[in-house]
Specification:
The protein is α/β, with parallel strands linked by helices. It folds into two domains: about 35 residues; about 130 residues, Double Stranded RNA Binding Domain. The protein is about 35% helix and about 30% strand. Strands 1, 2, 3, 4, 5 and 6 form a six-stranded mixed sheet that branches. A hairpin with a 5-residue loop joins strand 5 and strand 6. Helix 2 packs across helix 3. The protein is flat. It starts with a helix and ends with a helix. About 20% of the residues are buried. The model has no long low-confidence stretch (mean pLDDT about 80).
Length: about 180
């Protein structure tokens, strides 16, 4: 009985080693095949600099263009390999127009119907253009982001809170669009 048990244990160990070796071989094959992954970065490699002039603003909400331009410059510098510079020194230019800024009431207080939560929606058209070739790298129209705020007490947030949230979201989305096509 003891011999049968030792033989069974040796057989199990041999099978385990074979299974382990087979698993390592399969893993190595998967890694070597690459599964379609690339070492190439997310952003076009032939671009080093971007010019971001102050946005045009076709909305009633003046000043939004400065906040959005600043947020976009910071986002480009933070998330991409590009350096933001003047148009005379840049490889590319990111031109943007704020087409609309709108507020909408999301909820109201039961007593007095005072707006309780508001939404600020900013829409832009933008074009990222290669200044060396004149080719448009990316272009979007009607690109939107939303920021929410609560103007009533006890929170009492101002319009600037909603605008800041929308601007930050929009800058992040524009930089994401600048990434290479998959």
């Amino acid at each position: 009985m003891r011999r049968n048990r030792n033989k069974t244990v040796r057989t199990l160990l041999a099978n385990h080693r074979q299974l382990h070796a087979l698993s390592l071989t399969a893993l190595a094959a998967i890694i070597l095949a690459g599964c379609g992954y690339s070492q190439q970065g997310l952003y076009p490699q032939n671009v080093r600099t971007v010019s971001v002039p102050i946005f045009d603003n076709h909305s009633f909400y003046q000043g939004t263009e400065f906040d959005l331009t600043e947020a976009l410059i910071k986002e480009i510098e933070l998330r991409t390999p590009y350096k933001v510079t003047s148009a005379s020194n840049a490889d590319t230019i990111l031109q943007c127009v704020i087409t609309s800024v709108e507020q909408a009431r999301l909820s109201r207080q039961r007593i007095g119907s005072v707006p309780q939560e508001l939404e600020l929606r900013i829409a832009v058209d933008f074009r990222w253009k290669d200044l060396r070739t004149g080719q448009t790298l990316r272009q979007r129209e009607g690109f939107e982001a939303v920021g929410r705020y609560i103007p009533t007490g006890p929170v009492s947030e101002t319009l600037a809170v909603g605008q800041h949230a929308a601007v930050q979201r929009l800058a992040g989305q524009i930089v994401s669009v600048m990434a290479s096509d998959w």
